[in-house]
């Protein structure tokens, strides 16, 4: 493992560790928020209930006071209860603890010490109580103690009186403080528990991811066969692993292709280099006459040309791959192009003992890039000649109908085995027919053909059986569709009869 790989691995580990901490902190923060909100809601509800309870007690005591308090006609009052009943005496005593009784002018009829400490009588409060129908509730404080006061007026013996009755809130406040203290003391303890659980849960959730990280460390250029096992949960992680495996598959295919290409390219270049070297050595050590030198140089030149072709193919491939090849499309008659290519290969075919025939329909117009079309036809015919043994036949036809032009190149050669047919248009794909193949290629010719056909919105089909030849059919949209073909046809009536229009070739 390279040092930078180690650093990267450690970095990934610590990143996942950081993720675990972040997840745990998120859990803790979330629970802290929930606990605080729930605590505050409970406290609020408790406070409300305690207040309601105090109000109910005050209302009850108000009623009880009205039962014990008696007024005389002269406006004086007295408490009516059985003084010898300790329970009753205690109740009246309790009722009078925080107590104020006045007339409407504010003259105090009775005031407990408790009430005096709080506030004493206030005319504003008496007037306010007299002006409303319902009792008024106020909170008054003395030191750190607070009291709930119920104030109101009532009529007795033709006079109106003001009565204020107080209740200490100490018990309620203590209950509230005790709840708040206990609850918020528990929160940190609960949060420590949540942090522990969160840490474990985050570790469990991140375990497959950690395994993924470990597995990716095993992947390298020469070892792309590694595949990661799915967790089986069908979740996002499984999707990630599937995509990752697919990516590995694509990478592996590219690596195999590149490796194959390097082998092919070096082999292709090595063969002519070895030949040139041999020829030049022979010339240097054995040639005597100018003719012998000439022959050696011309054979070397032939091989140099072959090397030039290979380098050109590689250059074209890189240009195609980087999208640098711009097509110069124009309305072109394909007939002379096909004828020229067929004628070009005539000699080579003849030398191999192959019959090469061509039938072309004149004025077969298409909107194409002339140079690329020449390359396409040339690659197909070259392959047909290359893969057809002596005594075989190669036939090239060019036909058209109103919307399309059809180019077929068929041969009676060795054919292509069915299992290779889906791949022959792939880059660097070659079918190894036999170990002693006289002609080898880089496996680029058909991929260029495919690219050219597609760049012209056409299609290419192939039909072949091993040992029974191959037929390639290229279909391209015809050129100048707005101009009827009849306009062009009179220009070469004689040829037309030689090469009549035919129906589109059927490869099925
Ligand atoms: P190459 O440079 O090897 O010819 P191509 O891309 O042109 O590369 O062709 C790919 C493979 O398809 C060839 O290796 C050959 O095995 C097969 N092939 C192409 N044309 C023919 C044909 N007419 N007959 C038989 N096999 C063919």
**Distance between the first and last residues' Cα:** 54 Å
The CATH topology name of one domain reads Heat Shock Protein 90
Strand fraction equals 15-25%
Tell me the number of strands.
14
Bound molecules: adenosine-5'-diphosphate
The number of distinct helices, counting runs of at least 4 residues, comes to 12
H/E element sequence: HEEHEEHHEEEHHHEHEEHEEHEEHH
CATH class of one domain: Alpha Beta
What structural class do you assign from the helix and strand content?
alpha+beta
- Record the strand order, biggest sheet: 4-3-7-6-5
CATH architecture of one domain: 2-Layer Sandwich
CATH superfamily of one domain: Histidine kinase-like ATPase, C-terminal domain
At a glance:
The chain is 55% helix and 18% strand. The chain is of the alpha+beta class and 508 residues long. Among the domains are: 114 residues, Beta-Lactamase (2-Layer Sandwich); 69 residues, Helix Hairpins (Orthogonal Bundle), CATH 1.10.287; 169 residues, 2-Layer Sandwich (Heat Shock Protein 90).
């Amino acid at each position: 493992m390279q040092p930078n790989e180690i650093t990267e691995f450690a970095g990934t580990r610590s990143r996942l560790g950081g993720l675990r901490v972040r997840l745990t902190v998120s859990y803790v923060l979330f629970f802290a928020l929930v606990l605080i909100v729930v605590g505050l809601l409970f406290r609020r509800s408790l406070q409300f209930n305690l207040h309601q309870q105090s109000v109910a007690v005050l209302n009850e005591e108000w009623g009880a006071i009205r039962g014990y308090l008696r007024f005389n006609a002269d406006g004086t009052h007295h408490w009516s209860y059985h003084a010898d009943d300790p329970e009753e005496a205690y109740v009246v005593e309790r009722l009078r603890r925080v107590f104020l009784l006045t007339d409407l002018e504010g003259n105090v009829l009775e005031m407990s010490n408790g009430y005096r400490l709080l506030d004493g009588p206030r005319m504003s409060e008496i007037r306010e109580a007299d002006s409303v129908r319902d009792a008024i509730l106020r909170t008054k404080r003395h030191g750190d103690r607070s009291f709930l006061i119920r104030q109101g007026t009532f009529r007795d013996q033709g006079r109106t009186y003001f009565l204020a009755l107080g209740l200490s809130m100490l018990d309620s406040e203590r209950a509230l403080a005790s709840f708040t203290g206990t609850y918020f003391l528990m929160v940190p303890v609960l949060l420590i528990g949540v942090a522990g659980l969160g840490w474990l849960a985050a570790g469990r959730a991140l375990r497959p991811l950690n395994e993924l990280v470990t597995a990716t460390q095993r992947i390298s250029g020469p070892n792309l066969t590694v595949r990661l096992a799915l967790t089986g949960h069908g979740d996002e992680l499984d999707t990630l692993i599937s995509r990752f495996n697919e990516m590995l598959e694509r990478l592996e295919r590219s690596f195999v292709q590149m490796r194959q290409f390097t082998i092919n390219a070096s082999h292709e270049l090595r063969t002519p280099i070895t030949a040139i070297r041999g020829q030049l050595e022979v010339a240097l050590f054995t040639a005597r006459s100018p003719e012998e030198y000439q022959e050696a140089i011309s054979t070397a030149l032939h091989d140099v040309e072959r090397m030039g072709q290979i380098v050109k193919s590689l250059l074209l491939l890189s240009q195609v791959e980087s999208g640098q090849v711009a097509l110069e499309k124009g309305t072109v008659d394909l007939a002379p192009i096909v004828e020229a290519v067929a004628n070009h290969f005539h000699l080579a075919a003849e030398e191999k003992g192959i019959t090469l025939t061509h039938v072309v329909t004149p004025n077969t117009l298409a909107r194409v890039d002339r140079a690329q079309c020449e390359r396409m036809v040339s690659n197909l015919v070259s392959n047909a000649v290359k893969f057809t043994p002596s005594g075989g036949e190669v036939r090239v036809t060019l036909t058209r109908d109103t919307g399309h032009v059809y180019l077929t190149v068929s041969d009676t050669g060795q054919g292509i085995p069915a299992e290779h047919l889906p791949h022959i248009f792939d880059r660097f794909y070659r079918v190894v027919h036999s170990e002693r193949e006289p002609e080898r290629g880089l496996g680029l010719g058909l991929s260029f053909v495919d690219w050219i056909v597609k760049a012209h919105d056409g299609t290419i089909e192939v039909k072949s059986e091993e040992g029974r030849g191959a037929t390639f059919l290229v279909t391209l949209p015809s050129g100048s569709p707005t101009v009827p073909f009849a306009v062009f046809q009179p220009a070469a009536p004689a040829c037309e009869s030689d090469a009549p229009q035919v129906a589109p070739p059927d490869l099925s």
